[in-house]
Amino acid sequence: MLVRPRRLRRTPALRAMTREVHLSPEHFIHPIFVHEREAEHPIATMPGVSRHSVQGAVEQARMALSLGIPSVILFGIPDHKDALGTQAYAEGGVVQQAARAIKAQVPQVTVIADTCLCEYTDHGHCGPLCEVPGQTGADAWTVDNDPSLELLARTAVSQAQAGADVIAPSAMMDGMVAAIRSALDEAGYTHIPVMSYAVKYASAYYGPFRDAAGSAPSVGHRGTYQMDPAGGHREALREARLDVEQGADTLMVKPALAYLDVLKLLRDEFDLPVVAYNVSGEYALIKAAAQLGFMDERRTVLETLTSMRRAGADAIITYHAMDVARWLREAQG
Question: Which residues bind 5-aminolevulinate 1 per the record (predicted)?
Answer without folding.
Answer: 210, 222
